[in-house]
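Anyone up for a design puzzle?
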């Protein structure tokens, strides 16, 4: 009698091995998808933090111009080459260049009564930007400006 059941046991073992292989392949695909999802989530968190810092600086610039940036961030906007860099650590707190993980580069230009600002936030280890934007601010005319006009 035991010899009669032997082909059924071999078939059962073969089915069991195929089922285990199928589930192993499915789990490998799922793990890969979860890992990719985690990387995408981390990238989105970085882009959101970069966007928040850049838009905050742009809002200050649009409301108060270069003077507002100078007061808020302590950068010198008078003279110079029209560029500055702000450095952030992994927690997006301000820090010095040596310990920085992220950098926000500010470039500005003044023509007549219009100030233009370009902001770029990037990872210090990579060359591509996490977020960038431009903003403009109109400097109102003053009484002295009108008297000096011909």
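Challenge accepted. My sequence:
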């Amino acid at each position: 009698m035991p010899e009669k059941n032997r082909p059924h046991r071999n078939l059962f073992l073969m089915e069991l091995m195929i089922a285990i292989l199928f589930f192993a392949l499915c789990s490998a695909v799922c793990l890969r998808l979860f890992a990719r999802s985690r990387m995408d989530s981390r990238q989105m968190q970085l882009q959101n933090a970069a966007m928040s810092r850049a838009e905050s600086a742009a809002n200050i610039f649009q409301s108060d111009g270069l003077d507002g940036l100078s007061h808020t961030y302590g950068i010198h906007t008078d003279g110079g080459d029209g560029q500055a860099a702000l450095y952030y650590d992994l927690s997006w707190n301000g820090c010095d260049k040596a310990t920085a993980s992220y950098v926000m580069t500010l470039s500005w230009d003044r023509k007549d009564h219009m100030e233009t600002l370009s902001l770029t936030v990037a990872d210090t280890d990579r060359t591509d930007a996490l977020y960038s934007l431009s903003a403009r601010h109109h400097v109102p005319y003053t009484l002295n400006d009108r008297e000096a006009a011909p």
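A detail worth pointing out: The chain has one domain: 2-148.
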